[in-house]
Amino acid sequence: MRHRARIGIPLALALTLALATTGCSAPAGDHAPRGEPAARTAAFDSCGRRLAFDRPPRRAVALDQASTETLLELGLQDRMAGTANLKTQIPARYQEAYAKVPVITPKIATAEQLRSATPDFVVAGSTDLYTKDRAGTREELAALGVPTFVSAVDCPQHGAPGKSPFELLFSDYEQLGKVFGAEERAGRLAQEQRAAVAEAGEKARGATARDGRQPTVVYLYSVFNGMPYVAGGTGLPGEMSRIVGAKNAFDDVAEDWPEVSWEEVAERDPDFIVIGDLSERGRPGDSAAEKRHAMAGDPVVSKLAAVRENRIVEVPGIELDPSVRSVHALGLLAAGMKDLGYVR
């Protein structure tokens, strides 16, 4: 059970004093990421809130794993005062850098935990981490002089009409690059990932089901208390499907990961199934093996051709949520469709 955070005046004062002696006093080039220029003045909108910086943050806190790995990919570990909400193991390529970052909590951060890290910038993948019973609202943090960033993927309605989820993700890299004076590295990352998206689309060009129509797919993210959670129409898998020429079978459900029934999965009768392996998270029903067992044991779903003929693609589950790793899952999806015969 989570308890509403109560922030007293002494703690708020301590945060204000810490910010006055850290992020607001250093010259623009102090401790800039190695090999990157210091930030110039950066100003932009983040999920409906105007942010402005005249020097790079020195004590950034990432409220989720996706934000943490983005900052690590940009080489900003020396600018991080904390991380939280780890779902799976940090990839090997980040572990040395990650070891330098304090873990303020392995779970979702509370207001007390966040403020104890005396941040001068907070980064999150979604707005739901900024609530009174979590890290505190963005308004509360702004009143303390702490700017808050939210991934553009979670707020496509703010200033980015028509942009794809991947383009919104890449804009996150570029905005964060401006904030920290890491524009070159951020631009290179965005360019490399744009190329990976284009390559996945090219590999899956002309995908068709056996009867010549567009193949349909169900993304099975989790099985909790025996019930499946699948990709709905508002998450990244819908865009992944579009790129590779498939159709997400639950695109008509306006949620990222809705709980459905096995009967609904059977009714959609997908041509193939993508299983998100979350075995490192360790909850019941998280592993790919458990999901396969659940489908094989269901009297209706077990009769689907996709299950009987093993038309299944496994990807790391965390990569189905927007992150610096998502292009890897997209590549696995394109390769899996080819292996299953949907691409000639």
Automatic annotation (TrEMBL):
Residues covered by the Fe/B12 periplasmic-binding domain: 59-344
Family: Belongs to the bacterial solute-binding protein 8 family.
Xref: Gene3D superfamilies: Nitrogenase molybdenum iron protein domain
Organism domain of life: Bacteria
PROSITE patterns linked to this entry: FE_B12_PBP (PS50983), PROKAR_LIPOPROTEIN (PS51257)
UniProt keyword list: Signal
Xref: Pfam families: Peripla_BP_2 (PF01497)
Organism: Streptomyces virginiae
Position of the signal peptide: 1-28
Stated name of the protein: ABC transporter substrate-binding protein
InterPro entries membership: ABC_Transporter_SBP (IPR050902), ABC_transptr_periplasmic_BD (IPR002491)
